[in-house]
From TrEMBL:
It comes from the Bacteria. Pfam families: HIT (PF01230). Signal peptide: none annotated. Gene3D superfamilies: HIT-like. Residues 18-123 form the HIT domain. A motif (Histidine triad motif) lies at residues 107-111. This is HIT domain protein. One of its GO terms (molecular function) is catalytic activity.
Length: 159
């Protein structure tokens, strides 16, 4: 059974949105900030079950991609592309899966889930795999590497 009208309205409301509350923070319970652009916050997930798992989160509270102008849409996907390049540079992944869902967190964001040589390519991707948490220094090292790779890749304008 899908959300009730009231449940969905509450989930979709900017005032109660968890991503609006913490996507800009250097660190929160779920992730740490790699970079911020005019359009997005790029974050490294704390759950590194898929090494290099990142998120690109639209800064504005928009529930669905269909609400974006062509320019906003292009800027968002440019940030996603750049994040993918940064992940690839650091992790040398085989493939990155780009997932836009939003049925539980209806604030537009894209999950970037790298696939590695040890992964079974026939297995369905699940963002809930794990959780696998790195030691704090390993997480900080990965974050710094992705920040450096982000800075040296892509075309979008850094804030
Ligand atoms: Zn939001």
């Amino acid at each position: 059974m899908w959300w009730s009208e009231d449940e969905w309205a509450a989930l979709a409301a900017a005032e109660q949105c968890g991503m609006c509350a913490d996507a800009h923070l250097p660190a929160n319970d779920h992730s740490a900030l790699i970079a911020t652009t005019e359009t997005s916050h790029v974050r490294l997930a704390r759950n590194q079950h898929h090494a290099g798992y990142c998120l690109v989160i639209l800064r504005e509270h928009v529930v669905d991609m269909s609400e974006l102008s062509p320019a906003q849409l292009s800027a968002f996907w440019a940030d996603v592309q750049r994040a993918g390049r940064a992940i690839d540079e650091v992790l040398r992944s085989k493939r990155i899966d780009y997932l836009v869902m939003g049925h539980r967190m209806p604030h537009l964001h894209c999950h970037l889930l790298p696939q590695h040589a040890t992964d079974d390519p026939l297995r369905t991707v699940n963002i809930a795999d794990g959780p696998t948490y790195l030691a704090p220094d390993a997480f900080d090292t990965a974050l710094a590497a992705l920040q450096r790779a982000w800075a040296s890749s892509g075309f979008s304008t850094e804030r």
